[in-house]
Amino acid sequence: MALGKDYAQQQCSIARALEIVGERWTLLLVRDAFYGVRRYSDFLAHLGVPRAVLAARLQALVDAGVLDRRRYQESPPRDEYVLTGRGLALWPVLWALGAWGRAEVPGSLPMRHFHHADCGTELDPRGICPVCRVPVDPADVEMRPGAGLDPDPADPVGRALLAPRRLLTPLDPAATS
Ligand SMILES: [Zn+2]
């Protein structure tokens, strides 16, 4: 029997989740959405993903209920993509993946630091504020640039992300460049 292209025969919850977020680029799109990226052109600028792939991945995330497509301009028509509740629920997944990468994948640099916005303390590897002793919601996380960060000068999103910012705050590269 030939191997299928998906895990449709799999009942395992990990396999079923990977049906939604397991394709190349998809989790990076979700990551950028937490960083505040909402617009097609900004995802394109920051990730350098081929246009057709980006359009397909965004559509798949909308179809899966991870992103919500909202029209923000009528002429010409422009949409933005915002995490739904289902998308926001991916935060612990991304957090754990980042912590695993830093611990287990040689060469992974702490490109960004994540702090509890209320008290300024850096979160521990579990995503918990060591001072307040609570797991911190992404909306209460302040992201600060790490020493290893060196964005492409041609990437306005990367440059905008050099400033400390709260996660999920809509990013407007034009306002910061
Ligand atoms: Zn705290």
From TrEMBL:
Coiled coil: none annotated. It comes from the Bacteria. It holds the Pfam family HxlR. Residues 12-109 form the HTH hxlR-type domain. Keywords: DNA-binding, Transcription, Transcription regulation. The keyword Transcription applies. Gene3D superfamilies: Winged helix-like DNA-binding domain superfamily/Winged helix DNA-binding domain. This is ArsR family transcriptional regulator. It comes from Streptomyces hydrogenans. The lineage of its organism: Bacteria, Bacillati, Actinomycetota, Actinomycetes, Kitasatosporales.
